[in-house]
Amino acid sequence: MRATTSKVVAQGSVAAGRIRELNTDLDHLLGRTIVSRMIVTGRDAVHQVVDKFMAKRDQLEQTSLKPAPPESTF
Questions:
Q1: Which of the 8 DSSP states describes residue 72?
Q2: What is the CA radius of gyration of the chain?
Q3: Element of type H or E holding 65
Q4: 30-60 pLDDT, tens per residue?
Q5: DSSP secondary-structure letter at 74?
Q6: Is the pTM of this model over 0.85?
Q7: Which element (helix H / strand E) includes 15?
Q8: CA nearest 25: which of 37, 40, 33, 13?
Q9: CA distances to 25, 50, 58, 59, 69 from 64, in Å
């Protein structure tokens, strides 16, 4: 009976160790996924800001290239 109990305890200990390893692996994978999403989200945000800036710059260039209205003479 003791041998069986010792064997079960040993197997349980091995299983618990493997579960801890799997949890660590999962934590690493989830961490990478979260970081990857943050990078993508940040990159998308930067692209949006740059796009808005470029559109505003183009708009300003268009308005500055228009000929000035003629001076009104009274």
A1: P
A2: 33
A3: helix 2-65
A4: 888 888 888 888 889 999 999 999 999 888 8
A5: -
A6: no
A7: helix 2-65
A8: 33
A9: 58, 21, 10, 9, 12
Q: What is the dihedral of CA 36, 42, 46, 49, to 10 degrees?
A: 140
**Can you tell me the distance from the alpha carbon of 31 to that of 38, in angstroms, rounded to the nearest whole number?**
10
For 32, 35, 46, 62, the CA distances from 51, given in Å and listed in that order, are 28, 24, 9, 16
Chain mean position to CA 27 = 16
Higher-scoring residue by pLDDT: 8, 74: 8
Distance separating alpha carbons of residues 24 and 15, to the nearest angstrom: 14
Higher pLDDT, 67 or 51: 51
Map tokens 């579960």 to a residue. 19
